[in-house]
Write a structure and sequence with these properties.
Layout: E1 14-19, H1 25-37, E2 43-47, E3 68-71, H2 78-92, E4 97-101, H3 105-108, H4 113-124, H5 128-147, E5 152-167, E6 173-182, E7 194-198, E8 204-209, E9 217-218, H6 222-232, H7 256-267, H8 273-285
Parallel strand pairs: 1-5, 1-7, 2-3, 2-4, 4-5
Antiparallel strand pairs: 5-6, 7-8, 8-9
Length: 297
């Protein structure tokens, strides 16, 4: 087939959220999904975390709605994951979002790929290299099936845990739980278009991105999901700050669009919330008449 000019086309979202326990992976995934769909009934969550995701359904304090839900119990075999994803995809349709919470169980929990690898060693009396080749094919089939689903896909992954000593707000040195590599096959995160690493503070940062996020950091909100949906649809490029170049995101109850429009109206250029705050401060400190030095009292 001859080469032809590349064109950016509408695409489905393929996102992974990785973080330690308590980082807020499930809620972040739900917010991101709602931003994409604008409809809680078009979100289907597959729960391997013993029903915990149901705690987030229809919460007025968190502004969540009634999403579709099903629990995946042991064994966490790739075949059972694939079946659940197919059922969820059919339930939400092409414009919906399927959340796999969590994808780590498919690797290292009961019935996962590591268990299958051990089973192959014991029953077929094969060497480690041959067994890993077969187990790798099973893993690849799982990932490829997941990413080829005809809907948006979000997976969460647990991070391997470690502790570091840091100073708290009182200046006291305390142990802090930090997340390291995701609990999944090495390099699995490369299969996704966006990978967010979420800290215990709930602040996320991108370790991989093929969209417009670059080195984005912040708390994941539905507004971010909305911006991603618009970009993936092949349409709207997101607004960026004229001063610092960063992505303009929602803040203080205002959408990114409202902030961009408001700063253009008031300051003549698009500004992010932080740069807008700096501009306000700068103008307050500026003398009324630039040509006249302030008169000292």
């Amino acid at each position: 087939m001859a080469f032809k000019k590349a064109q950016r086309k509408a695409a489905k979202m393929r996102v992974a959220l990785a973080g330690p326990s308590g980082a807020g992976k499930t809620l972040s995934a739900l917010y991101l999904a709602y931003g994409v769909t604008g409809d809680w009934s078009k979100i289907a969550l597959i729960d391997t975390e013993h029903g915990r995701a149901q705690f987030y359904a229809e919460r007025s304090d968190l502004e969540t709605g009634a999403f579709l839900y099903d629990e995946l119990t042991p064994p966490y075999s790739p075949d059972r994951y694939i079946q659940k994803v197919k059922e969820a995809t059919a339930a939400v349709g092409p414009d919906g979002v399927v959340i796999v919470d969590s994808f780590s169980h498919a690797w290292d929990n009961e019935g996962g790929v590591l268990d299958l690898k051990t089973e192959l060693e014991q029953t077929q009396n094969k060497n480690s290299f041959t067994v890993w080749n077969e187990a790798g094919k099973i893993q690849n089939h799982l990932v490829n099936t997941l990413l080829s689903a005809d809907c948006h896909i979000i997976v969460t992954m647990r991070s391997k845990m470690a502790y570091a000593m840091e100073q708290n707000e009182r200046g006291k040195t305390v142990p802090v739980k930090i997340g390291l590599a995701p609990v999944q096959r090495e390099n699995t995160e490369y299969e996704f278009d966006i990978v967010f690493n979420i800290a215990r503070s709930h602040t996320a940062s991108t370790s991989k991105d093929t969209t417009f996020l670059d080195s984005w950091t912040g708390v994941i909100t539905p507004e971010l999901g909305k911006q991603l949906k618009e970009w993936l649809s092949g349409g709207v490029e997101p607004d960026r700050c004229a001063d610092c170049g960063s992505l303009i995101v929602a803040a203080q109850g205002r959408s990114a669009e409202q902030i961009a429009e408001g700063t253009v109206k008031n300051y003549g250029r698009k500004l992010c919330w932080n740069c807008m705050t700096k501009e306000i401060k700068k103008r307050k400190e500026k003398p009324a008449d630039e040509g006249t030095a302030p008169v000292s009292e």
